[in-house]
Amino acid sequence: METIEIPSLDSGSSAPSSSSSSSSSSSSLPVSPPSNNITCIDRKLYKAAVKGNFKEFINVQSIESILTPNKNTVLHVHLTSTETTPSLLPLPFLLKIRIKFLNLIRYKSIKQEPVSERFVQQILDKCEGLLLLPNIKGETPLHLAARYGHSAIVNLLIERAKVLLLEIESGIGAEKRLLRAETQENDTALHEAIRHCHYEIVEILLNEEPELSNIANKAKETPLFLSSERGYMQIVSKILERVESPAYEGPNGRTALHAAVINGDLDTI
Q1: What's the distance, CA 130 to chain centroid?
Q2: 48 with 154, same domain?
Q3: Cα–Cα distance between 5 and 103 in angstroms, integer?
Q4: Per-residue pLDDT tens for 191-212?
Q5: Alpha-carbon separation of residue 23 from 138, 182, 190, 268 (angstroms)
């Protein structure tokens, strides 16, 4: 069977990353890729994952062991290779142009296929463990769905985690583990959604887990600071509306208020 080593799917999809300490009390997922992982993936299966062709996986055993060198699972491959028509957030014209330009540069080398909810559902039916399985950077499928604006997939993953909750031992449930999962940079799915200005996903995540607003990443960026710094005032308003006392700290002693002053967002002040 012909195999191909797959280059990193993260190099073109990573958001501007951060680094330093986290104020989060939540722990990273206690789930690790299997030790007998496959670090090169069959070309046919890789293409099937990109296109969302489940037929190629019907007779595949141990699907959780099919990993790229960066430990991307079949779900990671699909979600980083597909697109969703973005929701229309009422942003200033120049900000819309900036976001579109940055996305064009970030994803220009990747041919985008439509995301397939059915494929994600079928893969999880076959191996539900993929729901919580992170790649080498600690990114779960929820992180990637939030980054790429797949709002329907975000909903699907959360609902699947709620069902899984009934089947696991007592303690923190699958839903909370999924929502609070952090990457190696301590980014949650909420950080990813804000960084890429996916308002609908921000709303979904805050409705499910308001406490996400209090988690800072390694760069000490809280969700409120991150959205204020980037001038995403609709997201700032949503956080303030949904969470009574959200964390507002940022790096170097700055706060969301400092960021608003610098950006001239007088309405926020």
Answers
A1: 14
A2: yes
A3: 26
A4: 999 999 999 999 999 999 999 9
A5: 18, 12, 15, 24
What pLDDT is stored for residue 129 in this prediction? 93
Residue 113 token pair? 């296929």
Q: What is the pTM of this model?
A: 0.76
Q: Is 93 within the bounds of a domain?
A: no
Per the structure, the complete domain to which residue 133 belongs is given by: 37-82+114-181
C-alpha span between 103 and 228 (Å, rounded): 20
Tell me: the pLDDT tens digits for 149-199? 999 999 999 999 998 855 555 567 889 999 999 999 999 999 999 999 999
Tell me the C-alpha distance between 193 and 205, whole Å: 9
| Mean pLDDT (the chain, rounded) | 78
Same-domain pairing of 138 and 60: yes
Phi-psi region of 197 (alpha: psi -120 to 50; beta: other; left: phi over 0): left
The answer to whether residue 199 is domain-embedded is: yes
Letter for the amino acid at 244? E
List all residues 6 or more positions away from 175 whose beta carbon is below 8 Å from its beta carbon.
Answer: 158, 161, 162, 164, 165, 208
Q: 109 in a domain, yes or no?
A: no
